[in-house]
């Protein structure tokens, strides 16, 4: 295939990529999606369209001065998106936006100073490349860190491939920075592989956006209390979703044996206790009980356990750390964060309010004898 044919394929792939990304944005707008993940997903899709167009052959070089800084900041958008997509407890902060603006501003400083101070601009480009690689590595670490606890089957299948390709693309852009240019040169000889990579990313993003449906939260007690096992085991479509007997056995382990107190309890060891394959237990907790994360499932029982201990007058002198460790938490930091996210107050505040109630005061005071 000659150069003209390769260019045509390149432009065709970029056009298809832009179409898929725009369709993702359109669907999100029609669904009126307002979650952090949806908004960042739209930002990622818009960045994908922008990247596909700006790095295409024949893109005017006169526009590089404002295009390159925005492209170089895509690594920050992707990192925040990975945090939101893969960590259900992540909260978007203002400093995340400030980080993006800082990278864009730094990129503008590099491009504007390129003509007058090429050596200094080259050094700045390498700094920008290090930032992009650091953010890509942070996104990869986040994926690996939360992989085992993820209960959403589609998200587990899609995110590693999606992350690997995105990190690869960011690495290409960052690698160009080490070659003394701020970002990858648009229309360079490597344009066709970039276009193909963008197309694969767009297709994976489309599968994730259009195929993934959030699990519907189900009250655990109601889920395991159904006497009609055949009906409870099937969704409205007739597809088998979860075994109610497995839910009852799981509930027994959690509420009677209090297995959640076991230090370092993982879903693999819990599946071994129940003598079921790990994927079946993941499906039961996700589709049967509505949990997206195994740690969130465990923390439900652990926090309730801690609330009872913190409200107990006889344990008023027991340190909060001891109560947290007894409930199954391995350190005080995660316990405090999970407890406040669930109750809205810290464990110390909860204990103070619980023990200051009149009924608690009466219990704590010894009865006087009459006579």
What brief labels describe this structure?
371 residues; mainly alpha; disordered C terminus
How would you concisely characterize the structure shown here?
The protein is mainly α. It is built from 18 helices and no strands.
What is the strand and helix layout of this fold?
Blueprint: H1 3-30, H2 36-54, H3 64-72, H4 74-86, H5 94-113, H6 118-145, H7 153-178, H8 191-211, H9 220-225, H10 229-232, H11 244-255, H12 267-274, H13 278-288, H14 294-310, H15 320-327, H16 332-343, H17 347-355, H18 358-364
Helix content: 55-70%
- Average pLDDT, rounded to a whole number, is 77
Please state the CA-atom Rg, rounded to the nearest Å: 26 Å
What is the overall number of helices? 18
Query: Segments where pLDDT lies below 50 for 5+ residues?
Result: 180-189, 212-240, 361-371
Would you count the extended β strands for me? 0
Kindly, what is the distance between the CA atoms of the first and last residues, rounded to a whole number of angstroms?
108 Å
How would you describe this structure to a colleague?
- This protein is mainly alpha-helical.
- 70% of the residues lie in helices and 0% in strands.
- It contains 18 helices and no strands.
């Amino acid at each position: 295939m000659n150069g003209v044919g390769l260019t045509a394929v390149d432009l065709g792939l970029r056009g298809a990529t832009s179409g898929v990304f725009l369709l993702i944005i359109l669907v999100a707008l029609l669904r009126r999606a307002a979650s952090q993940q949806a908004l960042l997903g739209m930002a990622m899709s818009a960045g994908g369209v922008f990247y596909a167009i700006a790095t295409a052959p024949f893109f005017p070089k006169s526009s590089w001065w404002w295009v390159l800084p925005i492209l170089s900041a895509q690594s920050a958008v992707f990192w925040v998106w990975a945090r939101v997509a893969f960590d259900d407890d992540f909260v978007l902060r203002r400093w995340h936006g400030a980080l993006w603006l800082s990278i864009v501003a730094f990129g503008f400083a590099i491009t504007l100073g390129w003509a007058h101070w090429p050596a200094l601009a080259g050094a700045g480009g390498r700094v920008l490349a290090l930032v992009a690689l650091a953010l890509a590595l942070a996104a990869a670490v986040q994926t690996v860190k939360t992989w085992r606890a993820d209960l959403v089957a589609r998200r587990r299948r899609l995110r590693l491939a999606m992350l690997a390709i995105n990190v690869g693309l960011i690495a290409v852009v960052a690698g160009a920075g080490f070659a003394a240019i701020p970002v990858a040169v648009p229309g360079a000889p490597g344009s066709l592989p970039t276009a193909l990579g963008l197309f694969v990313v767009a297709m994976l993003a489309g599968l994730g956006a259009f195929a993934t449906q959030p699990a519907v939260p189900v009250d655990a007690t109601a889920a395991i209390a159904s006497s009609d096992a055949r009906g409870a085991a099937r969704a409205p479509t007739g597809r088998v979703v979860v075994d109610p007997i497995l839910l009852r056995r799981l509930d027994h382990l959690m509420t009677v044996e209090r297995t959640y107190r076991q230090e370092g309890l993982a879903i693999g060891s819990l599946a071994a206790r129940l003598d079921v394959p790990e994927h079946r237990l993941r499906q039961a907790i996700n589709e049967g009980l509505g949990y997206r994360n195994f740690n969130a499932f465990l923390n439900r029982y652990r926090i309730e356990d801690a609330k009872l201990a913190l409200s107990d007058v006889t344990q008023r002198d027991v340190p909060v750390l001891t109560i947290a460790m007894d409930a199954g938490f391995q350190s005080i930091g995660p316990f405090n964060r999970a407890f406040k996210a669930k109750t809205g107050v810290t464990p110390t505040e909860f204990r103070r309010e619980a023990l200051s109630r009149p009924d608690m005061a009466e219990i704590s005071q010894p009865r006087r004898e009459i006579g």
